[in-house]
Amino acid sequence: MSKLPHLRLVQNAEPISYTSTNTGGGGSFKTPARNPTTHAPELKNGFAAARDQAAEIRVRERGSGLDVLTHEPGGLVLTFESDKGEELNLKGLEKVRDGIELRSVLPRDGVETAQVFVADGKLEHFFKLVETYATRTVLTISADESMRATLEGLVDKKRKVSVSIKEPSDGKLPASITCPVSESDRIITALGERATVSKQVRKNTPLVASIARVRLALVRDFWAEKEEFPDEAEERWWEVWLHALRPQAESVVARFRSLTSALGIRTTTRYVRFPERVVLLAYGSAAQFSRSLELLSLMAELRKARELAGPYLELPARDQAQFAAAMLKNVVAAGNEAPSVCILDRGVHRGHPLLEQALAESDAQSVDESWGAHDHDQEQHGTGMAGIALFGCLTEVLGTNEVIRLRHRLESVKILPPPPSENAPEVYGAVTQQGVSLAMMRRPDRNRAICMAVTASATPQGLPSSWSGAVDEICAGVLDETPKLMFISAGNVRAELYSPEYEYHRWNTTCAGIEDPAQSWNAITVGAFTNKVTIQDPTYAGYEPIAEAGDLCPTSRTSLAWPEDHHPGWPIKPDIVCEGGNYGAHGGSRSSVEDLSLLTTMLHPSGRLFDTTRDTSPATALAARMAAQLWSHYPKLRPETVRALLVHSAQWTRAMTGRFGLENKANVQRCLRCYGYGVPDLDRAVYSLKNCATLIHEGALQPFKFDSEKKKPATNEMHLHALPWPREELEKLGEVPVTMRVTLSYFVEPSPGSVGWGANHRYASHGLRFDVIRPLESVAEFKQRISKTQWEDEKVRPKSQSETRNWVVGDKGRTHGSVHSDWWEGSAAELAACGSIAIYPVTGWWRERAHLGRLLQKAQYSLVVTLLTENVEADLYTPIKNVTSVRVETLTETTIS
To answer: What's the confidence (pLDDT) of residue 26?
Structure first.
């Protein structure tokens, strides 16, 4: 599907006088329409064809001698497919006690596919389900109480008629009758007029009708990556996810290895165990995998094997230099007008061959010229950050023959002295502001993502410090009236990781609070998660990764560790998480394994050019890199908007949602305070699609005024956004699920001075909130619900429509900090009526301390709204782009060269 630029809403905000009104579940499964007369035979043919193909493969296995390796009980894996834009009824596809197991659910161009293991002899289960669907129907009936005897008399075992009678309700007797399709007309006639048939559906419809096709699974059906499936004959390393409970892991791996060995497929000796999965690497081709039915029956997923950092570190200095030189031939540097990642650290060695052309000598500065501009310490933290900020993990680009076209540059400001000297904690804020000022004075016109992975110990309850207050001032542009985008690491567990008391995840969420200044309201605080779970280095034989794929990096800190009486409204931290690597454990030992780390740049006296890095530092560099790349596409966006788009693009992994569950708002909050809004995705941040339209509005409102009548400060205005909604398209889609996500981002001005921020001394200058019109609410009712100025009688509250939508975060949970994001899923028809959004103010020190002269200030904000449907045939984008009632500007991508 073609990638499209986002849409900008211009002159879209209607200012409305505002006074606070001061009042202190998911949808049901949609079954596709089917014709049972044709659908049932088609599915039966699919099951039969899969059975026959499996038999043919087993004949070939016997001919090649593979059958001697077959273990009982065996089985096969079927692939079930939905229609485009529809879902499978997954609950009905698993019956573990009968040897039917759901292995994986993967999207394929809008089609949901499920890989289901079916034990030998159990395929008959699906034939029976389909046969029952073809031949039996269920009548839902409402009858008078006097009909009870008649209903009971309809039971006929010979004719296979059964009756279920429920408790009477409202004078009616609800019942259901299950019978052969051929008997339904006779039964309806026998009931007469004293009973009403409200519904007649084929038995097993929810499951059977959701299945569009079924077939024997192919190797490509297990591919879980976004990129195209590799050529069938190409030999390569695969990350193989086997289905196995923990106690079965060893025996399942043994079976897998015996089969792969016979097929000429190499496997690693080490593997990772998770509750229901075993992960190991295998080298071979897809064609080799396809030769064994049992081999496929052991699998759940296939993923791309990630290249590891270890082999590059083992290379001699001369070979490392050759790799760097070969890579440089493919690098196209960005021009001086490109955005940058500005690294605040101990300096950067710009003499590194991979960094030199992206970091001009004049852009490498220091707050104290006597310190020099490069990092003197052996760790070379700043140089390592620079490599990640420019290229990402170097294992992704070293050895490639593809052109590496950079879209951003680097800047470096040394804010820490050479070791062993240190700045006193009370001046960290001033030094940070000075460092940013140096970069701004050098290139005031450049878009820059400021990256600082330098933190101090955590503050009590995550309250603001002088350092975090200084950071908030930098972002809000208090000193120079230029807002800025800043990324700060959440901080790391250090020596505690190696102590006997450390327990993964529990310790991170109960003892390891976010470090100073990452509690900042305006900066994007970056935590670390990991997808790195493969260890190949024989030095670490017996070690297993501490975190499973998709979960929290073992050193990453969270705001869950802040006390339960944490001040309401304080920010959710981290905001997002990026790759930070993993750690290995063996018995009571833990280690920073290189295979579980990120590869980056360093300039060692020996000539070595590469080193590994981990934790929240590289995660922060990756996030800042993403922001710079986003700005290279849309150079006119405000910093608040780039921040909003990154948060807006973030999603939780399965490991994250599985850790806390999202069944209630309390657990959603726990998930947010551990992982923020999840892992950002650059494609989602940069591009819209036809079935995924993103709208951006950059506005400003004046939150407060002086009420001359009441002679005191008061709230002033709200903004009403009538969105250019694709109403006709949504109504045409009807019951198709559509997700609406809204993100509001703004910077607050922190209260001046380091005076502590309790209940009577507000930290934030102001706050903003959003609300979305409800499906059955008129615009007039919506205005009245939000603002008291819209009431006809200020003493009489108008009636309002109740909220029927299940927002994931919820209107109470999304009020923290200064970036608010929430989403809900409903039918397209329901969403068609939700095209108005209100942005309104809540109080802050601008109003409460009017004597400071900020009462009449305007507050900038960025609003991002996305409509998404998995139906790839739907076009939500074009109707919005072509609307005439509101001027819509297409954001122009700019190529940096």
So the answer is: 45
Name the packing angle between helices 124-135 and 36-64 (round to 10°).
170
Pair 687, 6: CB distance under 8 Å: yes
Q: Give CA–CA dist 843/715, Å, rounded.
A: 8
Q: Are 614 and 598 in contact (CB under 8 A)?
A: yes
Residue 95, φ and ψ in degrees, nearest 5: -145, 80
Q: What is the DSSP string of 515-560?
A: PTTTT-SSSEEEEEEE-------GGGTT-EESSPTTEE-TTB-BGG
Taking the CA atoms of 332, 336, 342 and 348 in sequence, report the sign of the dihedral they define: positive
d(CA 674, CA 575): 9
510-540, pLDDT tens digit by residue? Answer: 999 999 899 999 999 999 999 999 998 999 9
pLDDT tens for 26-55 read 456 788 889 999 999 999 999 999 999 999
Q: Are 84 and 870 in contact (CB under 8 A)?
A: no
Would you give the DSSP letter of residue 386? H
> Can you tell me which residue has the tokens 């559509």?
738
Q: What CA dihedral angle connects 784, 787, 793 and 797, to 10 degrees? A: 70
The predicted model gives 133-153 an average pLDDT of 88
* Interstrand relation of 299-304 and 704-707 (parallel, antiparallel or unpaired): unpaired
**Gyration radius (Cα) of the chain, Å:** 31
| Number of Cβ atoms within 10 Å of the Cβ of 9 | 22
Which residues 6+ apart lie within 8 Å of 797 measured at CB? 21, 791
Cα dihedral 623, 627, 632, 636, rounded to 10, equals 180
Phi, psi at residue 444, to the nearest 5°?
-65, -20
Kindly report each contact of residues 98-103 with a partner whose C-beta sits within 8 Å and lies 24 or more positions away, as own/partner: 98/122, 98/125, 99/73, 99/75, 100/125, 101/243, 103/77, 103/243, 103/299, 103/300, 103/301
Region of 884 on the Ramachandran plot (φ > 0 left; ψ -120 to 50 alpha; else beta): alpha
CB distance 319 to 344 below 8 Å: no
> Which CATH number is associated with domain 310-669?
3.40.50.200
The tokens of 525 are what? 């605080």
Give the other-Cβ count within 10 Å of 883's Cβ. Answer: 16
Q: Where are the domains of the chain?
A: 4-30+689-890, 36-208, 219-289, 310-669
Burial 684-707, CB ≥16 within 10 A → b, else e: bbbbbbbbbbbbbbbbebbbbbee
Mean pLDDT, range 450-475, rounded to an integer = 85
> Cα–Cα distance between 525 and 486 in angstroms, integer?
9
The mean pLDDT value for 173-188 works out to 90
Q: Two tokens at 562? A: 């802040």
C-alpha–C-alpha distance, residues 107 and 870, integer Å: 9
Q: Which residues pair with 842 in a beta bridge?
A: 767
Q: Which residues of 42-73 are buried (b: 16+ CB within 10 A; e: fewer)?
A: ebbebbeebbeebeebbeebeeeebeebeeee
Cα–Cα distances in angstroms (integers) from residue 888 to residues 17, 440, 683, 835, in the given order: 25, 32, 22, 15
Do 90 and 102 meet the contact criterion of CB atoms below 8 Å apart? yes
- Confidence (pLDDT) at 523: 98
15: Cα separation from own chain's centroid: 34
Distance of alpha carbon 401 from its chain centroid, rounded? 31
Joined together, the tokens standing for residue 732 give: 């045409």
CA-based torsion, 826, 830, 834, 835: positive or negative: positive
Which residue has 């939500």 as its token pair?
876
In three-state secondary structure terms, 131 is helix
Written as six digits, the tokens of 482 are 């230029």
What is the rounded average pLDDT of the residues 84-110?
A: 87
DSSP 623: H
